[in-house]
Design goal:
By secondary structure, this protein is mainly α. It folds into three domains: 91 residues, Orthogonal Bundle (Fumarase C, Chain B, domain 1), CATH 1.10.275; 223 residues, Up-down Bundle (Fumarase C, Chain A, domain 2); 95 residues, Ribonucleotide Reductase Protein R1, domain 1 (Orthogonal Bundle). It is built from 19 helices and six strands. The chain has a two-stranded antiparallel sheet. Helix 8 links the parallel strand 3 and strand 4. Helix 3 packs across helix 6, helix 6 packs antiparallel against helix 19 and helix 10 packs parallel to helix 12. The relative contact order is 0.10.
């Protein structure tokens, strides 16, 4: 396939250099965006009297036929082409003749690839956001099912205070809602058209950048032509948002891995999303959750790789920037794959409230409530804290829990203890009286569920 830039060089590029330079294996997925952008460009050239309406019609019809043939498989992408832009233009010229060569008027591959990439990533972002909203609906559903399930809340991975399992799940919902916001914010900033910036300095033709921006669904166009072709901030921003999302998914899956272990047994995962052992027949491994946790590092690598690639580049376009697509495409592919597995895995996850409550009872996580009981009776908090700690130590020594101590034992520590202490340290009471906004009371948890539903 002839080079679009043929004419300057006195000899052909070496085969190894051609292979090294080629990006079609990566950028061929943007064929739809490339063709759509070219049709808008051709229409603009005609509207500005740069090419004739007849030539524009021939170009657009030719591009539409290429798109149709690529979609239905009639036309195969030639992997010997340097990139998708060269492939489309040369097929167009083969089909409609020299008229096809007019398409590249007032355009460079620099602004062409930039507009293709922004359009492609825009649609990818919409796809991930929709999947996140589906995931959020599943989290809200699981939370509704587990409003009455009491589980230990942890700090330092030590049992700390009793909470509703729904409350714990909803913490991830809040994180995921922010992930949606981050992706949408990044997409909004990205939605400026670079088309018309050409190589870096603009063009001598009187083009209409508003025309192409509107045709292609952009909010406007990049004001500085150098910035338009050399900016990849949007890739970095999207990669950052995807990395934060993967961090949240990783934390969520780490907890599911713990909860589904025999040591916790708070949840059970469906056999459809676990594997067994090749040697130990009793095993049920949470491999899908572990893989999501592992793939987080891959997305981090895509972010760091892109930042490193960009950090020393002078303006404007440099071939280094060809490396942007492999990283950002890989990150979106990875996130999509993880969400496709995680959503049904979470939806089919079964909870075991009885095991959660047993763990809560054995963890002395009502010790703070015991201290608060004495405070409400008039004792200073530090004194109440010491008594509560002493009683926990006593229970550990005797192999019992606070709920099972007789009132006589309580009286040995303070005369302020009365029969109502058992109600005060009951786990249901403990979670229900956390009435502060955002807390673990039933009313607060229900309000949080409603918030999630209203924001997806």
């Amino acid at each position: 396939m002839a080079k679009l830039w043929a004419g300057r060089a006195a000899e052909d590029t070496a085969k190894v250099a051609d292979d090294f330079n080629s990006s079609i294996a990566v950028d061929s997925r943007m064929y739809r965006e490339d063709i759509t952008g070219s049709m808008a460009h051709a229409a603009m050239l005609s509207a500005c009297n740069i090419i004739s309406p007849a030539d524009a019609d021939a170009i657009i019809e030719g591009l539409e036929s290429i798109l149709t043939d690529l979609d239905d498989g009639t036309l195969k992408i030639d992997m010997e082409a340097e990139d998708i832009h060269m492939f489309v233009e040369q097929v167009l010229t083969e089909r409609i003749g020299d008229v096809g060569k007019r398409l590249h008027t007032a355009r460079s591959r620099n602004d062409q690839v930039a507009v293709d990439l922004r359009m492609y990533l825009r649609s990818q972002t919409v796809q991930v956001v929709e999947k996140l909203k589906t995931l959020l609906a599943v989290v809200a559903e699981k939370a509704e099912e587990n409003v009455e399930s009491i589980v230990p809340g942890y700090t330092h991975l030590q049992r700390a205070q009793p909470i509703r399992f729904a409350h714990h799940l909803l913490a991830y919902a809040m994180m995921l809602l922010r992930d949606v916001g981050r992706l949408q914010d990044a997409a909004k900033r990205m939605n400026q058209s670079p088309l018309g910036a050409c190589a870096l300095a603009g063009t001598t033709y009187e083009t209409d950048r508003d025309f192409t921006a509107k045709q292609l669904g952009f909010d406007g166009w990049c004001i500085n032509s150098i910035d338009a072709v050399s900016d990849r901030d949007f890739c970095v921003e999207l990669l950052s948002a995807l990395s934060v999302l993967m961090m949240h998914l990783s934390r969520f899956n780490e907890e599911i891995i713990l909860w589904s272990s025999w040591e916790f047994r708070f949840v059970s995962l469906s056999d459809a999303y676990t594997t067994g052992s090749s040697i130990m027949p009793q095993k049920k491994n949470s491999d899908m959750a572990e893989l999501i946790r592992g793939k987080t590092g891959r997305v981090y690598g895509d972010l760091v790789g892109t930042l490193t690639m960009l950090k020393g580049l002078p303006l404007a376009y440099n071939k280094d920037m060809q490396e942007d697509k492999e990283s950002i495409f890989d990150a979106f592919d990875t996130v999509n794959m993880c969400l496709d597995v995680f959503i049904p895995m979470l939806k089919t996850m079964v909870t075991h409230p009885e095991n959660m409550k047993k763990a809560a009872q054995e963890g002395f996580i009502n010790a703070t409530d015991l201290a608060d009981y004495l405070v409400r009776k008039g004792m200073p908090f530090r004194s109440a804290y010491k008594i509560s700690g002493s009683m926990v130590a006593y229970c550990i020594q005797k192999g019992t829990v606070l709920e099972n101590l007789p009132l006589e034992t309580y009286k040995q520590y303070s005369d302020l203890f009365e029969e109502d202490v058992y109600t005060a340290i009951d786990l249901v009471t403990c979670v229900q009286k956390r009435i502060s906004q955002g807390g673990t009371s039933a009313e607060s948890v229900q309000a949080q569920i409603q918030y999630v539903k209203e924001n997806i």
